[in-house]
Design brief:
By secondary structure, this protein is an alpha+beta fold. It folds into two domains: 41 residues, no CATH class; 55 residues. Helix content is 51%, strand content 14%. It is built from three helices and four strands. Bound molecules: zinc ion. The site of zinc ion has 8 residues, from loops.
Length: 101
């Protein structure tokens, strides 16, 4: 009998100039709180997708923040040093030399 129940969630159609809302006509395949939903309108699926998008955005944001932090540190470390010297310097090998002394 459940095979006859439609999803019925409100769906969006953006193919026109305005957004058209209509009841989803897909067959409901998952039951949540005594209501049936298709895979796309399954509240748990929507929640999972939302969380995935948020996590992805958080990771992107963290990477960007880290890259700004890095650039700030490089800028501060090079402050007052003439460009000609910076062009010929390798901080990593300088630090290795200091550590070996
Ligand atoms: Zn649906």
């Amino acid at each position: 009998m459940n095979d006859c129940i439609n999803c019925g969630a409100t769906a969006e159609d953006n193919s026109f100039r305005f957004t058209h809302y209509y009841p989803c006509s897909r067959r409901g395949t998952v039951e949540r709180d005594a209501k049936w939903y298709c895979w796309q309108h399954d509240p748990e699926y929507i929640e999972r997708k939302k969380k995935e998008r948020e996590d992805k955005w958080k990771r992107k944001w963290a990477r960007e923040k880290e890259s700004w932090r890095r650039k700030d540190a490089e800028r501060n470390a090079c402050k007052g040093v003439p460009t000609e010297i910076l062009e010929n310097i390798n901080v990593k090998s300088l630090l290795e030399q200091i550590n070996n002394e």
